[in-house]
Each structure stands twice: as structure tokens, then as C-alpha cells.
Amino acid sequence: MTYIDGFVIAVPKANRQKFIDHANHADTLFIEMGAIRVIECWADDVPSGEHTDFRMAVKATDDEDVVFSWIEWPDKATRDAGMAKMMSPDFADPRMDPATNPMPFDGKRMIFGGFAPVVTLER
Known about the structure:
Layout: E1 3-12, H1 16-32, E2 37-42, H2 54-57, E3 64-73, H3 76-87, E4 111-115
Antiparallel strand pairs: 1-3, 1-4, 2-3
């Protein structure tokens, strides 16, 4: 059964291309670690809510847009092994080095988590 890591972040609108470049550079690492695919989505139709919404969740300002992303893994074991390798103190890859590929957003406001699918419909 597949496993999904999901992310919601606020990215300055002025950093859209920087974000795309950062993602194109860094996301290849997840594929090398065994991910099936990585999807990065820039806000297009994200309504404001009365009680909560994507923008409120990441405290996005007027000069920021919301990015919704996910990494699809073949299973949780592959995800856990890949993430453990990437988080190891011995792991050094310039794609994840802030000096060579700085995050063009405030990582402290990123919401993330791992999810086990319970319903999957495909065409």
C-alpha cells in the first residue's frame, strides 16, 4: 500500500521561480530514495475560510501564496528507510544543503505529515 508525505507551505509570490528551481533540484533526491513521484502545486483556486483555510494554516501573508505538495512512496518501509538515510548525520548531498540550495520560504511555517491512504480511486 502506498504511503504519502504531505506538505503545505507559504512561499513569497516573488519567489515562485526560485521555489520551482529549488523543488526541481531537491525533489530528485526523494525519487532516488525510492519515491514513486513528487507533486508540487502552486495555489490557483484557494478560497478564504471563516474558521480555517490553507492560508491561515501556514500564516500566509498577502505577498505569499500557498504551495501544496506530496511525495508518494510505494510503502511506509521505503519512506522510512529513505527519510532515515537523508536525516543521517553522515548524509551529505548538495541538493539538501541550505548553502547550495536555500529554501525560498520560511520552513518554520511548513505543515507536514505522513499519511496512510484509506481510499484510492483510479481511472
